[in-house]
Amino acid sequence: MTSLCPISLEPINVGVILSDGFTYDKNSISKLLGVDKLEYNVGYEKLTKSPYTGEDLICNKIYINIKINSGGGKYYKRPYVDNTGYTHEYDDLVKNIESIISNRNTCYYRNFDYPESSQDQHYYIFPNKSLMIMNNISIRKDDTSQMFILPKMSDIILKPIIYSMEIRDLFTKKFDSNLIEKLKELYKKHEIEINENDGYFQTIVYRDIDLSNVVINATRKSDIFYNCNLSGAVIMSDAPRTQFNYCDLSNTIFINGNLIGEELSFYKSNMEGCKFTENVKIEKGISWILCKTSDEIVEEIKRRGGYNVTIGTI
Predict the structure, then answer these.
(1) pTM higher than 0.85 for the full model?
(2) Where are the alpha helices (DSSP H) in 40-178?
(3) CA-to-CA distance for 297 and 284, rounded, in angstroms?
(4) Tens digit of pLDDT per residue, the chain (314 long)?
């Protein structure tokens, strides 16, 4: 079943969802706002009321509705959209947000703050009403947009950074199943705290270590570097959704990497003299749009928490 845009009453080509829970065709919203190029996850002052119901909107941002654009996907009992455009079961989504809030202090090394919410920490979720209608799901009275406040990362006393040739050597190798176990042994040897990182791959947080001037091959999606010296390092592999929190990334070189995803973070990391090869991709916010200029890259790194941001390309 094809969803129709509530404004044009034509089939939706590219769906964008507003905080009223309804999905509109991207071109219709562009015309409504009088903008040629609509940006996702960006607030628009004119967007105060629902174009469909006329009711006040809880927020004035526009999000891509991924499930509508892909034909709806799996069946949901109560589909809700988070502020990245993904659809989840309502109960699962709320549990995840509550878990983020409750784990904020224990998982102090992880930055849960999305780049476009770094100032106010507002996290919105919306009922995916268009998807509900497509799949004949009854819309309940309590299917309304909700706002959560995510705690910001708290500053803690950082521990001394350990220089270990054994640890440095591990990061020069390609990632394999034995690397984490070897790293755990070395962490215990040097009395480095071991924190589990349950991202896309079960691993540990790379923390309190000196990797300066190392050619790093052992990185994977969703890695976390916390309080590490990476100055002058060369990061060879992809680093999507990777976090560099409280790190020294001065004169670090990123090669052939995809620095994308809402989790990507440079929180309180020194980025002076950082360099990127031309094929490194950096996403603007949670927009699915890549930075095209050095100025855009600088602003994006700042938005994701970096400071002393001066960059170059090689």
Answers:
(1) no
(2) 66-69, 90-102, 129-134, 165-171
(3) 8
(4) 457 899 999 988 888 999 999 999 999 999 999 998 888 877 898 999 999 999 999 988 888 766 554 444 567 899 998 877 788 999 999 998 888 788 777 788 888 776 654 445 678 899 999 888 888 899 999 999 998 887 776 677 889 999 999 999 999 988 777 888 999 999 999 999 999 887 667 789 999 999 999 999 888 888 999 999 999 999 987 788 899 999 999 999 998 778 888 889 999 999 999 998 888 888 887 767 888 888 888 989 998 999 999 887 77
Q: Token pair for residue 70?
A: 């892909």
As given in the structure block, the two tokens for residue 298 are 């600088």
Show the tokens assigned to 21.
């829970």
DSSP 175-186: P-TTHHHHHHHH
Tokens of 145: 């947009």
Backbone phi, psi, residue 184, to 5°: -60, -40
Tell me how far the alpha carbon of residue 132 is from its chain's centroid: 26
- Which residue is associated with the tokens 């002076």? 272
As given in the structure block, the two tokens for residue 194 are 């071991």
Whether the Cβ atoms of residue 150 and residue 111 lie closer than 8 Å to each other? no
